[in-house]
Amino acid sequence: MASNRDEFFSRPSLPGHFWAGQCNLLGGLDQEQGGTWLAICRQGKIAAVTNYRDPSQAEGKLSRGHLVRDFVASNQSARSYLASLTPSQYSGYNLLLGDAQQLFYSSNRGPILEPLSAGIYGLSNHLLNTPWPKLRHGKADFERAIHQANFNVERLFDVMLDDEPAADSDLPNTGIGLPAERFLSSRFIAGGDAALQQNPELANHSNQHRLLNYGTRTTTIVLMDNNGGGRWFERNHTLNSINRTKTVAFSW
C-alpha cells in the first residue's frame, strides 16, 4: 500500500508510532480528535480512511479517524465491525479494512461492504477506482513500480511524490471551483508558495488562506506478507517542503 495523507498543516498530529497503551497499533495520531488515517497492528489487521469530497453535505458528528483506530484496536473481523457502525454519524468517507488474507472496501456514499479480489486499486476522495487523473495515472505508475526487477521502496515513494497537476480538461467537478480542483489534482499536494506558483488563480479564491495551508503531510508505504508480518516506511512533509530522503521505518 502506498498512501498520501492530505490535511491542514495547522491540525496537530504525531507521525507513525506504536501507540502507548495500545502497543499493537502502529499509525499516526490526529491529536485533535484522537483517531488516525492509516494503521496496522502486529496481528496483521490494517485500515485506512479517506474523505469523500462533497461540500454540499453536512458534517458528521463523529471523527472518521475513529473508524481506523477502533477497527485495528479491536478483536472484531472486518464484517462484524462494519455491521456495528452507524455510517450516517460520519462525514463522507471511504474505508479500507482487513488483513493480509482479505481486504474490504466500505463507504457511506457507496457500497456498505465490498470484498476486494486480488488486483491493484486506487482510492482518492470519491468512490474506489473513480478514474480521476491522479488515480488513473497513479495506478499505472504503481503497477510498473511493483513489477520492476529488484523492487525498491524508493520507487513507490517516487510514485506518491509526483506533484504534477492534471490538465483542466481532465478535472472532476466536485463543487469546489476550478482553482481548487486544480490545486487538489496532483498525487502530492504542495501548499503554500509552491501551490500559488503552480496555480496563481488561488490568490483570488474565496478559501485562499485555508487552501494554501493544506497539502500532503505524510507519505506511507506498507508492505505485508501472507503471515501478517511486514514493514512500514514513512516520510513526513512540511509546508513548502517535500521530504525526499528522511524515512522512518518500523517492522513487525
Automatic annotation (TrEMBL):
Organism domain of life: Bacteria
PANTHER family: SER/THR-RICH PROTEIN T10 IN DGCR REGION, TRANSPORT AND GOLGI ORGANIZATION PROTEIN 2 HOMOLOG
Protein name from the UniProt record: NRDE family protein
Organism listed in the record: Halioxenophilus aromaticivorans
Lineage of the species this protein comes from: Bacteria, Pseudomonadati, Pseudomonadota, Gammaproteobacteria, Alteromonadales
